[in-house]
Design brief:
mainly alpha; Glycosyltransferase; 15 helices; 57% helix; globular; disordered N terminus
Length: 373
């Protein structure tokens, strides 16, 4: 008897064929008739067979539903915003602790799923996400600049981790249909608010915050297959690379004086991720502004090896306090996937792998550099 293949089977075969061909799947159609938005190839990775004893699912942090009104850790600093206010930082960390616990917790669970294959990790991650979605967390319309920054950081972290579950060929979300619908609706609400937040922000003051907003909206766009969000993210990216000077610097980050190198390093991560996701969807942004992103990357590479380059540019000795953790260099994974890294950068990257950051959804080595099974 001739059996018509199910839509799920056809989709899985298409994905597998694309992976074997070294491509990103893009054959399905979205709601508007255009090709459905997809993730870079590494996001289709399957989880391994389950091993080890399942962990008990801890209670999620309480959903944050209050006003997004938080102090800046640079409160009281001059326009360079490079001097920490210790008291304000303590208050900020206390008030935003539940958000960081949520971001890191979900990322840990998703990471363990792709390391040990235990479905209970997905069960727990979805329980956490559902609890915040049901409460309408982080949707307050009362916020200050730091508050709207926290909203987009949290969205980027959670959506980045969720992308791995959404596109994995193991299809871990098949057992969580109702939860997924709630979580994705919440992501959409947050993404719309992030767009509104940063549309209202003066364009001439745009800086790394706008790039991180672009990443959070790009992650949401691909999860939700929303071209409007995708286009907005690309627009923010383009404005960001427009700011890169002919000699490869970001003027809005140079004004950070002693932290200029740190903030150039911080700024490049979301720009690389947006570029990687755009390329997966047939839009190659690497040539924008005569290869501005590559100019920026080369300067950051050089500055990390010799901070005096940024000292000479700014007139200030660079503080390296923000550059002590390997997670700060997770952008190297999408960078070396998009461009030909120099031999020295390639050797350095390999020496500090795996490179993971919860701000971008977890283990980027696995997503951009690891071998597909």
């Amino acid at each position: 008897m001739l059996v018509t293949p199910s839509k799920r089977l056809v989709s899985s075969v298409a994905v597998l064929s694309a992976l074997l061909a070294g491509c990103t799947p893009s054959s399905e159609r979205g709601p508007s008739g255009s090709a459905a938005l997809v993730a870079p190839t590494g996001y289709y990775r399957a989880a391994p067979p389950p091993e080890g004893k399942p962990r008990e699912c801890e209670a999620p942090p309480p959903p944050y539903t209050g006003e997004l009104d938080f102090p800046s850790k640079y409160q009281g600093s001059d326009s360079s915003r490079d001097t920490l206010n210790v008291a304000a930082e303590r208050r900020y960390l206390k008030l935003t602790g539940d958000m960081r616990e949520m971001e890191k917790g979900v990322n840990r669970m998703v990471g363990r799923y792709f390391k040990y294959g235990r479905p209970q990790e997905v069960d727990c991650a979805m329980t956490w996400l559902e609890s915040w979605a049901d409460a309408g967390a982080l949707l307050s319309k009362d916020y200050n600049h730091t508050g709207m920054s926290v909203r987009k950081w949290t969205l980027g972290s959670l959506a980045g981790a969720y992308l791995r579950l959404k596109f994995s060929t193991s299809r871990p979300l098949d057992a969580h249909t109702e939860q997924s619908a709630k979580v994705e609706r919440w992501f959409g609400q947050m993404a719309d608010m992030v767009v509104a937040d940063w549309n209202a922000y003066p364009k001439e003051r745009s800086n790394n915050h706008n790039y991180w907003a672009a990443w959070s909206v790009m992650a949401s766009a691909v999860i939700l297959d929303r071209r409007d969000l995708f286009d907005w993210s690309v627009g923010q990216y383009r404005h960001g690379v427009d700011q890169i000077t002919r000699d490869g610097y970001l003027p809005r980050e140079l004004v950070r004086e002693t932290r200029a190198l740190s903030y150039h390093n911080y700024s490049i991560a979301p720009l690389m991720m947006v570029s990687a996701f755009a390329k997966a969807n047939g839009l190659d942004l690497r040539g924008e502004d005569d290869g501005a992103l590559l100019r920026l990357a080369r300067n950051v590479e050089a500055g990390l090896q010799n901070p005096k380059i940024f000292q000479e540019k700014t007139g200030y000795e660079q503080k390296a306090v923000d550059l002590q953790q390997s997670s700060r260099f997770a952008w190297l994974e999408p960078y070396c996937a998009l461009y030909q890294c120099s031999p020295s950068t390639e050797a350095w990257r390999r020496s500090i792998e795996p490179l993971s950051t919860y701000r971008l959804g977890g283990d980027l080595t696995q997503l951009f550099s690891g071998q597909l099974p």
